[in-house]
């Protein structure tokens, strides 16, 4: 069992204590100015995410191509968020239930909260995320989220509360997840696809697959290139279809 470390912050008369677990037998002591150096993206979950008899939500582990590790989720909404995070090139690492903080002051009651996710971004910055559909946010929940956002502001992190992902985008990303791993991409086919797109600039999905050769062979590689955003198409307006326009990423 990893050791639990505590980090105490006391800005503006407030007292905040962060508890977290790192892999192995690590004992960490840090003040607010050292907090940015703590690799919360590697943290172990602060509570077990396991199904219980009679629960309404579905929980499990999602294998992230980003970071090459399982990340726990406690609902389909959280699972869909993880898929969107896996697709986002600016996110390089994700951890679930990364820490628990207790916060108190002379003018506010003591609050304790475990955020859903910690994101490490490509530029080294950090973002803490809570996932809760708007319809399920009650006043006590909002107070917790406000306290979490305030804590993140003090630490120089960003904070987001997200709800359900857009339905069409979410469905398309779920399809593409089947092709996100390198095994889905044939390097020779990918070179033909990229050369064809450089010549054509824009083709429908059907045209591109047929121009490359056998669509059954070509499509897994094409989907992989869409997932890693070498190729682009509109994933928000319609479900993937053979007449969707494919272009080369400008990035």
TrEMBL record:
NCBIfam families: TnsA_like_Actin. This is TnsA endonuclease N-terminal domain-containing protein. Pfam families: Tn7_TnsA-like_N. Residues 89-161 form the TnsA endonuclease N-terminal domain. It comes from the Bacteria.
């Amino acid at each position: 069992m990893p050791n639990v470390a505590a980090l105490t912050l006391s800005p503006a008369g407030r007292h905040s204590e962060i508890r977290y677990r790192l892999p192995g037998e690590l004992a960490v002591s840090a003040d607010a100015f050292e907090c940015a150096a703590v690799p919360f993206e590697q943290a172990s979950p602060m509570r077990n995410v396991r199904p219980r008899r009679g629960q309404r939500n579905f929980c499990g582990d999602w294998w992230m191509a980003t970071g090459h590790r399982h990340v726990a989720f406690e609902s389909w909404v959280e699972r869909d968020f993880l898929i969107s995070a896996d697709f986002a090139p600016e996110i390089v690492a994700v951890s679930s239930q990364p820490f628990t903080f207790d916060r108190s002051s002379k003018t506010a009651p003591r609050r304790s909260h475990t955020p859903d996710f910690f994101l490490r971004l490509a530029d080294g910055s950090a973002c803490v995320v809570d996932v809760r559909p708007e319809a399920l946010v009650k006043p006590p929940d909002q107070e917790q989220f406000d306290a979490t956002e305030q804590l993140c502001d003090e630490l120089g992190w960003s904070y987001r509360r997200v709800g359900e992902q857009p339905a069409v985008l979410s469905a398309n990303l779920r399809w593409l997840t089947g092709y996100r791993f390198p095994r889905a991409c044939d390097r020779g086919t990918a070179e033909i696809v990229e050369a064809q797109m450089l010549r054509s600039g824009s083709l429908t999905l059907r045209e591109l697959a047929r121009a490359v050769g056998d669509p059954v062979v070509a499509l897994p590689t094409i989907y992989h290139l869409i997932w890693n955003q070498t190729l682009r198409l509109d994933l928000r307006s319609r479900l993937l279809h053979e007449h969707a326009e494919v272009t080369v990423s400008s990035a």
